[in-house]
């Protein structure tokens, strides 16, 4: 639910419920074109359940910035997802446009939480699932 001033210069978004992303992770829609009238950015809260992982994917034509609020996550990336980086609470991550990747929660008992921002106001429209075996 969004509330706005008569002139749409400041918009507050309080997500009513979590939804499922194309990457098959629960998330809370924050800032987007649909929720706030954004023209060049989106920002959401992503939840990675214990032992969970996103479907391998890429974001066609836009960049992603991530701040890991909670947890320890392995991000597999690149052709065949053969490269890997591990992030912990407080780490920032940048993923260039069109780079295949897959975040994996390394904990079997704790949920990982991350704020994700992209330079696309309709961020789910540009998600492309990726088969690392092709």
What would you say this structure looks like, in words?
The protein is globular, with a radius of gyration of 15 Å. It is mainly beta. It is built from one helix and 13 strands; from the N terminus they run E-E-E-E-H-E-E-E-E-E-E-E-E-E. Strand 8 and strand 9 form a beta hairpin. The chain has a six-stranded antiparallel beta sheet. A three-stranded antiparallel beta sheet has the order 9-8-11, with no helix packed on it. A two-stranded antiparallel sheet has the order 1-2. The protein has a single domain, classed as Jelly Rolls (Sandwich).
Which labels suit this protein?
13 strands; 1 helix; mainly beta; three-stranded antiparallel sheet; Jelly Rolls; 134 residues
Unreliable stretches: none
The CATH topology is Jelly Rolls
The coarse silhouette is globular
What is the residue-mean pLDDT, rounded to a whole number? 89
Count of DSSP strands: 13
Indicate the structural class. mainly beta
Strand content: over 45%
End-to-end span in angstroms? 40 Å
Q: CATH homologous superfamily name?
A: Jelly Rolls
List the helices and strands and how they pair.
Blueprint: E1 2-4, E2 11-13, E3 19-20, E4 26-31, H1 33-36, E5 42-48, E6 57-59, E7 64-70, E8 72-77, E9 83-88, E10 92-95, E11 101-105, E12 112-118, E13 127-129
Antiparallel strand pairs: 1-2, 3-4, 4-5, 5-12, 6-13, 7-10, 7-12, 8-9, 8-11
């Amino acid at each position: 639910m969004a509330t706005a001033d008569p002139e749409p210069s400041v918009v507050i978004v309080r997500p009513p419920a979590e939804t499922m992303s194309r990457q098959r992770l629960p998330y809370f829609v924050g800032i987007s074109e649909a929720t706030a009238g954004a023209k060049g950015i989106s920002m959401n809260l992503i939840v990675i359940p214990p032992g969970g992982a996103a479907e391998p994917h890429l974001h066609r034509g836009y960049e992603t910035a991530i701040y890991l609020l909670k947890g320890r996550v392995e991000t597999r990336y690149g052709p065949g997802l053969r490269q890997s980086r591990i992030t912990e609470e407080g780490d920032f991550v940048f993923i260039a446009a069109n780079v295949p990747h897959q975040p994996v929660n390394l904990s079997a008992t704790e949920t990982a939480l991350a704020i994700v921002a992209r330079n696309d106001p309709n961020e789910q429209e540009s998600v492309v699932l990726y088969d690392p075996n092709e």
